């Protein structure tokens, strides 16, 4: 079962907490917030409307409570896993808006959530408990296609304007009217130099017989197949069925020959740490969080890497759409977005985050220079998002991939 | 004759010793992972997973309940297990008594129905229950988890007690009743003490099964209830904090303490 | 035996004793199974919508068998191996506890259960540590320079204990050992000591006494233990996921995949029933072979 790469952030917490004491971290975040407070509020004011701190918020029951279902460790929290400890984003939001938040980290796998909750509940026209869920982009595309999500009240989300332009022209939702990205990430290759003896540069290195039985791939189809397609010279963004099947052929052959040890979700990190695995397909944020002493390296293959993002949607019939809008507006304020990214260490979809981090100085500023969080144009051009598939094709491909992954 | 007695006496100690040696090996094997779990509770992990030794630290034990989510899930698990074990032992014990004590119409059906849940993969039990609760619009949560756990513990209890009670010489009961005891008193003073070891074993088994269950629970718990295995399984793919080892060690300590008390009392009884 | 003659017949009492348990099983086992069977014979016209049409689609069953033959065979193979290992490991221990342990018996018995008061996930993760590339098992083998030997006999693959079929079988054996040890112990302990003395007087060799008296009397325990070990082991997939590799997948993960990743409930349900059917047939055959009608469930 595949997991989403949101977890490593917890490691970020451990790491960060070790370097900065909790108080220093929260103070820094607070300072960072204060330092750029002017910018966002100006932006909000320009966006018009009521902007920030709602006073008692009329509009009845839709704006006093909010329930969010997200991946693990995808938001800043204190050492004991409390989400609304003083100084966290949720705490700041609750104070600023008067909305009481229930934040649950129960979104573990797109397909699992779809089959346990989306399909049986939304498919029958009932409503989910959560007001905001954060599926991966392709699942969001599916939900939007099935018309199982609410249209976002953009008038109430002035900070929507802070969304990076690249997200505004996606075929399945131009203008991002029904979703707002949470965090993005990069899929590339990771390896242990002590075990491989050399640096890896290409997705095809994973198929090198030298590493037989010491390689893992991800159970996330778009990542494993996408990288393989890059290695074969085809374009994952085009999602041509023949190319996909050719990639699947290659993966199938490698799996049955023993080249690929297993297909994993996030647990590949453990195998990397323990030396059971020499090289694997990996997610950028995970590796950024690893203890540098372990010496694990990450790179985007020279042919290209996969880009993905997780995005917030409001399931159809959600009770608290107004509160959800307030939340989305809040986290798209660069100061808040910066706080989240500093903890989570993935790519923020919000404009102005890099500047906010630089302004905060110290460790945060170091993150601003991290190419995995803020890739330059040359790198960005090598990243592709896996193309969209028709429903029957998607099911057929997923089914074949499931048979291969065992 | 004398020769064979001598021969037997010489052979028996060797066999005994081999058996004893084997027992030691088996216990070592049974406890090997436990040693690792406890040892690693004193580890400060280098990475996100507490599975490679890094350095010794007492910090984890100083703050074992640091992770609120872990602690909450543990409490939930204990509550579920207590409830499920209690009910399953009673219902299952009664069933075992009935099937081994009486002949009646439908006994074959009862026997088959008792064993069938054991032949079903947990995923099937879980998903079929999910469909049942969902179709009836019953909220998934603590209650549905307990219901599910009672269901799969019933069979284990019935089988365990049956194995103990089969071939039992029931004439004890008849003798007691011939002597004028009422059926209830007979049960209380004659039957129950005799089958108590089987019942106790079954209760223990139910508790352990319930605490450990992941698959069925994950289907019927809904999004509000999280048990300890669920929390570990979900988190284990992404991070294993040392607190997991600490809590596991604490559970072990409690279990060992209970065993020790039980053993001490048994020894005391045998002396008396 | 005296037991048979004292079985009571024709009284209402058993139904009272039975009813809570049986009702529970009917409500929360049979009824859901029924709806699952219905789904197994249904079709899902749209993969994303939870609508099922009951169309007597027996194809689901044949498709499932065809597609998952390797995993089915593998699951039963691994489970059988684990069960045999459990018997080999557990029987001598049960014998020791029943006949040699004396006053320490209850303590030692309880000690068997102690490790199993931790989550099996934690235990299996601990095995990952023990068998891993940096772990003690491999370290010992390397110190003794035995790795080429273990590679040759297949105990390790490419110099690794972990992520191999052997590791999976080892994990299965470990996790289900008490389910074998305890029932065997229970049936051994029940043996009347006077029978043992009689046996020792009758037979000149202790191994004959064992073979002719003790072993047959312990068979109910072995049978119960086999049931409690083999069946869950065949359906288990956590061990395979944590300790195995891509070629050690068991049927449980396939069913999970069909349910959770492919939204293919009908085929998942069909596969589940096929799996259960094979097990039931196997169990009945096994009971036949062991021969006593006491064992027939």
Walk me through what this model shows.
The complex is a heterotrimer of chains A (406), B (272) and C (297). Chain A is α/β, with parallel strands linked by helices and 406 residues long. Chain A has helices at residues 8-19, 22-35, 38-47, 89-97, 110-122, 137-145, 193-196, 221-232, 241-257, 268-274, 284-289, 321-331, 334-344, 353-360, 363-368, 377-381, 391-405; strands at residues 65-69, 100-104, 132-133, 180-191, 215-218, 260-264, 279-283, 297-299, 305-312, 383-384. In chain A, strands 4, 5, 6, 7, 8, 9 and 10 form a seven-stranded mixed beta sheet that branches. Chain A has a three-stranded parallel beta sheet with strand order 2-1-3, with no helix packed on it. Chain A starts with 7 loop residues before the first helix and ends with a helix. By secondary structure, chain B is an all-alpha fold. The longest helix of chain B is centred in the first third of the chain and has 39 residues, at 2-40. Chain B has helices at residues 2-40, 59-62, 68-101, 107-119, 122-135, 142-165, 171-178, 183-212, 215-220, 228-236, 242-271; strands at 43-44, 55-56, 102-103. In chain B, 49% of the residues are buried. Chain B has eleven helices and three strands, in the order H-E-E-H-H-E-H-H-H-H-H-H-H-H. Mean pLDDT of chain B is 81; it is low at 1-7. Chain C has a two-stranded antiparallel ribbon. Chain C is built from 13 helices and three strands. Chain C has 297 residues and is mainly α. The model of chain C is unreliable at 1-6 and 293-297 (pLDDT under 50). Chains B and C meet through helix 1, helix 3, strand 3, helix 4 and helix 5 of B and strand 1, helix 2, helix 3, helix 4 and helix 5 of C. Strand 3 of chain B pairs parallel with strand 1 of chain C.
